[in-house]
Amino acid sequence: MARITIIGSGNIGFSLAKGMAQAGIYTPEDITLTRRSVQSLTQESAAGFSVSADNAAAVLGAEIVVLAILPQQAKLVMEEIRAALKPEQIIVSVISGVSCADMRAVLGEQTIIVRAMPNTAIAIGQSMTCITTDRATNDEVAVVEKLFNTVGSVVVIQEELMTAATALCACGIAFFLRSIRAASQGGVEIGFHAHDALKMAVQTAKGAADLLLQMQSHPESEIDKVTSPKGCTIAGLNEMEHHGFSSAFIKGIKLSAQKAGGLYDE
């Protein structure tokens, strides 16, 4: 079986490794995870993954090299592995705000680069991953698309939309989690115990998302089914809107996209 190396095994890197292993497209032994200190990879090693603190050595023999590192670390890590890379290896970048052109400027013009932006739900096979490239062939993109399709849904987009995808899908996990937390806090205020309120909020949010996915409907059409004239649902919705619920959410997404676009240059 082919090998894959994931440089950077923080939340996204380790989540990706676990997701791929659970999906059966790689065995843990065929996945190498790197970090600056092998001592911090004890959990990963115990799960059967190969581990290394030597990025240059880890990329040797890998069909795919995933860079799952912070934008601020990108240049240093790319310079570290540059000499060890082969032209046929596919470099999958999970780095926010770093373009294919930025990467080729360091790794060399011949490098095959596909950018991917998953989110942390990849650990349970429920990621929303956006994929893009500027020069890779359709076949090379298909290899990466197949990889991420096993751990959630994939959309192939234009590269100029990649920072926007970071805000909506990667940062978006935190936004939806915060809204669920707020709903559970509201539940406590109206009389439920905290653990019951959280369970109710989580399942209600899951039901709302599944309604849209399975019915292929628009949120407003489902909202219309719940809002009756002079009813309690429309009263609650309007109160939230009076306090800027949708506006705040939209502004947060826009600011996250703006911030994501400048991370590499900081």
UniProtKB/TrEMBL annotation:
Keyword Heme: no
EC number: 1.5.1.2
Recorded GO MF terms: pyrroline-5-carboxylate reductase activity
GO biological process: L-proline biosynthetic process
GO cellular component terms listed in the entry, alphabetical order: cytoplasm
InterPro entries, per the entry: 6-PGluconate_DH-like_C_sf, NAD(P)-bd_dom_sf, P5C_Rdtase_cat_N, P5CR_dimer, Pyrroline-COOH_reductase
Pathway where it operates: Amino-acid biosynthesis; L-proline biosynthesis; L-proline from L-glutamate 5-semialdehyde: step 1/1
Keyword Cytoplasm attached: yes
Family membership: Belongs to the pyrroline-5-carboxylate reductase family.
Physiological role: Catalyzes the reduction of 1-pyrroline-5-carboxylate (PCA) to L-proline.
Protein's name according to its UniProt entry: Pyrroline-5-carboxylate reductase
Higher taxonomy: Bacteria, Pseudomonadati, Bacteroidota, Sphingobacteriia, Sphingobacteriales
